[in-house]
Design goal:
It is built from nine helices and 16 strands. The strands form three sheets. Strands 1-16-15-12-11-10-9 form a seven-stranded mixed β-sheet. Strands 2-3-4-5-6-7-8 form a seven-stranded mixed β-sheet. The longest helix is centred in the C-terminal third of the chain and has 27 residues.
Amino acid sequence: MIINQTGPIVENFYSIGHPAIPVYLMDGVSPIIFDAGFTFLGELYVADIKKIIGDRQVEYLFLTHSHFDHCGSVSILKQHFPLMKVVTSKTAKNILGRPNAIQLIKALNQASETIVADIGMELTSFDKFTPFEIDETVKDNDILKVSAGLNIRILETPGHTADCLSYYIQKQKILISSEAAGQSDRTGYIVSDCLYDYDQYFNSLKRLSLLDIKILCPGHLFVYTGDDAKKYLKASMIECERFRELVERCLVEEDQDLERVKIRIKHIEYDHFDGPKQPEPAYLLNLEARIKAVAKRMNNTCNRKESVLKVN
């Protein structure tokens, strides 16, 4: 099954907020949530959480990585759930301590306010992003015992970012992968989000595909269950290789000119789509990083001394 709306997914596990930018909630003795979406959706996340858990506190917030659309409402959530412990990787903690990273997160969350109408919402005021503290860091293959019968396995899945984590809820066989598993748009096209390193990204995909998964939760739009979860991961690996081949071909045809390659890829992935989509400034930042990741691989593969890209 492919789910494209918020609400219960299986018993005690929910997608909340907005399907385009969800937060995932696992209810139980110790409620936990995964990721924190956009800043302007913070109060919506809080309202949805309280509808489910009432006056109880959220025990943990697990961040997959430090991107603006996954940590935007941490401070708002912390205001409402002051006992909540924020957990992520050591790398993400270091990134979130950099003033330039905080300024970029602020700017991109502000830019995202332009899509409010596109996702069917009406807001008259917008909360602003504020920095937050990381309470705990985790590493690959750590097992966090949240409560009886609720264990979370930590998987380092770099490639989308250097700090990207996936979380595997073992008993329920739920995988919160974020963009480590790629990201499908509403047309079914899977964006290969290899912003940091192409080979690491592809290897992370392969690692995730070997897990016994009943529910797959990427970063945005859809949740996949049963056979659809397995099919999605296989399709994401295929699309990843297709994207690499496309970029390599464009780099050759455009004489390694980054800006011209960006225009061609953007036309394929972004310009034709009229529905709600990633804010353009964020898309362009990500696209440039994805192209450079493939170009870096080309350099390494070809053992060239000169850069593939003609950029400063």
